[in-house]
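Molecular record:
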Amino acid sequence: MSPRDPDDEFREIKREIIESRGLIIKTNNLTAALSADVKALARRQAGYERRLTVNSATAYVLFVVLTFGGIKLWLDASIRENRLELQTLRRAEEQARRDLSGALREKEERAQLDARAQAFYELVRDGRKQEAVETWEQLRRERLPPAELAFFQDVVDRFRTDLSLLAYERGLEHARMARYAEANEAYDEAQRLKDDAGHIPRVRLAHADALRHLGRQREAIVVLQAVAEGADREAADDALYKIAQCQVDLQQFGDARNTLRALLRRYPYGSVSNDARMYLAELSSPNPPRR
């Protein structure tokens, strides 16, 4: 093998140098491109990290806001619920106070009512009829038990009947003494005390007689008409007879004759039928008498 030519070696070295230089240039270009890529990646990574930081902060802030918002809503709901419960308790307390006050007031009123009922019973037991009747007018408006109310009412009704009879007898006594004004007051009292008692028709007859003696025939006729239209037949014929007498006093002879005829038609065998026939005969004469 022949030795190499120096020129060939030189060329070879030169070629290698050129290749090395090209390789170095390529390496530099690749290094520059790699550096640019790394910088771009670094910028993108930094942007991503910034976005991630912003998103994390936003998410944290949103989480905190939602958490505190939820807590506030829960607190508001709890406060409203507690307020409603407190208002309900206050209303219940007020109602309980009113109920207690009403119960105490009712208890006090009941005690007072029991005391008044006991005092009234003592009047009944002692037979103090007039005081019992006067006291009952106020006591009966109270809230007495039904049985007690019925018992007292029956007792008072008996007392009223007894007092009415006494007033009637007092009126008759005044009438016998010709004190017709006092008799009229007594008869009024008798009717006021018990206007549905069995003796009231007779009281009204006596009352009308007192009015007639006082010159108040028209009022007497009104009283007598009520008796004549009532259910007491024995008093009705007397009432018609007395109506005729009042009409004669008023010079109403025709009305008096009609009244007597009505009496005889309704009660032909009554206690005053004979007197009514004689009176009708007198009124039918040419000169009717005045009684």
Remarks:
- The chain has a mean pLDDT of 82.
